[in-house]
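WARN retry 2 of 3 for item q-0093 after timeout on previous attempt; input resubmitted unchanged.
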Amino acid sequence: MNTKIRVLVTGSQGFLGANLVCSLKQNNNIQIIPISRENYHKLDSKLLSDVNYIFHLAGVNRPRSLNQFEQGNSLLTKEICRKIESSFPYRTNKLTIIYSSSIQVDLDNPYGQSKLRAEESLIKLSQKFNIPLYIYRLSNLFGKWSKPDYNSVVATFCHNIARGLPIKINDPKTEVELTYIDDVISEFVNLINNEGNDYDIKPIKYIESTYKISLDDLSSKITKYHKSRKLLKIEEVANGFNRKLYATYLAYLQPKDFSYNVPKYVDERGDFVEFLKTNNSGQFSYFTANPGVVRGNHYHHTKNEKFFVIKGVAKFTFTNINTLEKYELVASNEESQVIDSIPGWAHSVKNIGEDELIVLLWCNEVFDREKPDTYPYSNQ
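OK item q-0093 returned
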C-alpha cells in the first residue's frame, strides 16, 4: 500500500518548480509527480485522482507575443481545472491546490490580467468541490536557477556581471520588490507539513519576507561581489537580504570561475598569504616557516591576532615591552589551540619542528600600510 504523500508539480522544470522539486526530494515520505511541457500529456483524470497536493507553478511571464500570456496562464489553468474536475468521481483522498500567481494581478496589463483569470478558474473549482486552495501572489523572485533575461532582473544582473558583460538600467532609482526563492519554497513545504483544519476560505496569500531595493543599489551590491576576488575583500553576506543575494550571485559563476588565485609572498623564511579581508571583522591569512625560522618579532599597541597551528610545532615567545616579563608556550597541530597576540606584548613564532610549519592567522583589522600598528622588537 502506497502511504506516501503524492505531490504533483506543474512547471517542474521551471525556476520555481525545479527548486520545489529539489526540496521535496529531501522528504522520503513524499512522492513527486513532475509535470513539464515534455510530459503534460500524462496529466489525465486517473493520475489526478490519486494526488494529495497539486502545485500549479507552470506559466508564462516573458512571451514572444502577448496572446501567449492568455495561452500559458489563464487558458492552461482552465484546462487543468477541467482535468481536475473530471477526476473527482474517482477520488478517494483529500486534495489541496497551491497556485503561484503574481502581485501584478492588480495591474491593468496582459500578464497580470491573465494570472487573475487563472485565479478565478481555480477559485470557482475550489468552491464547487470544497478544495483547499492557496493562491500565492508573488513579487519578483530571485535565487539559484533563475533564467537571465527572463525570470528576474536579479538573474540578468548576476549573470552579466559575473561574466564581465554590460547591464542596462534605464532609471537607476527604479525600485523593485524581491522575494527569495528559498523563502517561497519553505512556505510551500511547511504548508504540506503543517496543513490542518485551519484553512482560510480566503485563498489569497503573500510571502511576508520581501525586500525593496533600487536598481542602482542592486547593481552596486552585485558589482562589489564580483570585484571582491581581486580586492580579497568579502562584503557583509552573513544575514538577511545580503546573504541571499550573494548566494544568488555565486550560483551564476561558471565552473571555470569556481576558484581563483591570491597573491603569495615568498622569502627565505617561508610563505605569507592574505586570502580574505572583511569590512568590519578583520582579515584571514596564513604563513609558513621553515625549520628553525623565527617569524614575528614585533608588537602592536591596539591590533590583535589569533594564531592556529595547522601543521608542525611552534614555540611562541611573548615579552611585555613595559615590564620585560617573558612567557613561552609550545603549540602544534596535535592540539586544537588558539594563541592570542596581546597588545603591548612583543611576540615571535619559531618553528621548532623538523617539518614545515603552517599557521592560520586572523587579525582584527585589515592591514593598513599607512597605519600598520606593527613595531619591530627582538624577542629572542
